[in-house]
Amino acid sequence: MSFLFLLLPRVVVKHANALAGQYLINTAPVMAMNLFAHALCCETDCTLKAVAILHHDAYLEGESGSPFFGLHPHQRRGAVLVDKADYSRTNKHALSLQPTATMNLTVSLLLEITGAVNLPKVERFLLQGGRIAGGCIEQVGEIELVPDLAQLTLPNGYWVIERQDLMQVCDNPVDALFAAIGKTTPNQADSPPAQQATTETDQEHSPADGDTPDAPAATSAAKLPDSWLIPTILGYSTLTPFEKRPGTRLAPRGESRHAEWPLHAYCESMIGLVQYLPARQWPNSRPLPFWQQHWLDDFTFVVTQQSNSAQG
């Protein structure tokens, strides 16, 4: 079976969700971008094998007294209720509010696909209602479709790669995560320290094309630089059985009420660690860092680069 490579360069997304798992704010919505690629292929009658993410820029929407610390994310308030029904019961002067965090994002997506591809249909999907992490797609560069990666000139940027190795430096993955991002926990004082990671500045401001993190100029296949690390959602684990539930997303409504009803399950997010790695530091001996979607079992869905088989 022959594969094609679809490049969506410099996709500009406005007001995308940056609040992951209700407690984590980041600028690398890896799961959302993988599922966006899946939805794109479903709408354009092709099959997704893998997707690589090339980060260009991201900016959290918020206010801060300092350019690097103490970010206060912008909040949005909807007025969908009337007669003061949208006010808090205990405070008639405060409207109800659901905490949120949003960002503006620019990425390039490289999809490995099979099947016929209708490029005008791809463009319509992107610019006429396409969303990534809930954000509106406002702009995209010239889309390219080639049978060989050697025919592509990829834009400059940062590959988003998986760093599962840093989550395995100790028995407790939570301790390993905090150690990797520079927030060592007390019960890890006697454990081997993780490799040096990002500072708070790195966590609040993702790299832009012109930035250069403090990393070696050359990268060997055995060791990658440990800069621009960021936790993000890389999977979901179900808490309930899959079943048909009224009111779920994509449930049949109106004229489509006789369509197939999708199965639904409540789930919890699974946090992993990723890294922004400058494209020029990616070893030529390695295949490009493609993400693939997998069901580990009947209850656990993940996106990972561990089974990376896409070839350059």
Write the layout of secondary structure elements.
Elements: E1 4-17, E2 19-20, E3 24-25, H1 30-43, E4 47-60, E5 62-63, E6 72-73, E7 102-114, H2 119-127, E8 131-132, E9 135-139, E10 144-146, E11 158-162, H3 173-180, H4 200-204, E12 229-238, E13 267-278, E14 290-295, E15 300-304
Antiparallel strand pairs: 1-7, 1-9, 1-10, 2-3, 4-7, 4-11, 4-14, 5-6, 8-9, 11-13, 12-13, 12-15, 14-15
Mean pLDDT: 79
Secondary structure: number of strands: 15
Helix content: 10-25%
Q: Low-confidence spans: pLDDT under 50, at least 5 residues? A: 184-205, 212-222
Strand content: 25-35%
Radius of gyration, in Å, reads: 21 Å
InterPro entries: CRISPR-assoc_prot_Csy2
Region (Disordered): 184-221
Pfam family, one: Cas_Csy2
Biased composition (Low complexity): 209-221
List keywords for this structure.
312 residues; mainly beta; six-stranded antiparallel barrel; 31% strand; globular; CRISPR-associated protein Csy2; CRISPR-assoc_prot_Csy2
Plain-language structure description:
With 312 residues, the protein is mainly β. The strands form three sheets. It has a six-stranded antiparallel β-barrel. It has a two-stranded antiparallel sheet with strand order 2-3. The protein has one domain. The radius of gyration is 21 Å and the shape is globular. It has helices at 30-43, 119-127, 173-180, 200-204, and strands at 4-17, 19-20, 24-25, 47-60, 62-63, 72-73, 102-114, 131-132, 135-139, 144-146, 158-162, 229-238, 267-278, 290-295, 300-304. Mean pLDDT is 79; it is low at 184-205 and 212-222. Residues 209-221 have a biased composition (Low complexity). It comes from Chitinivorax tropicus.
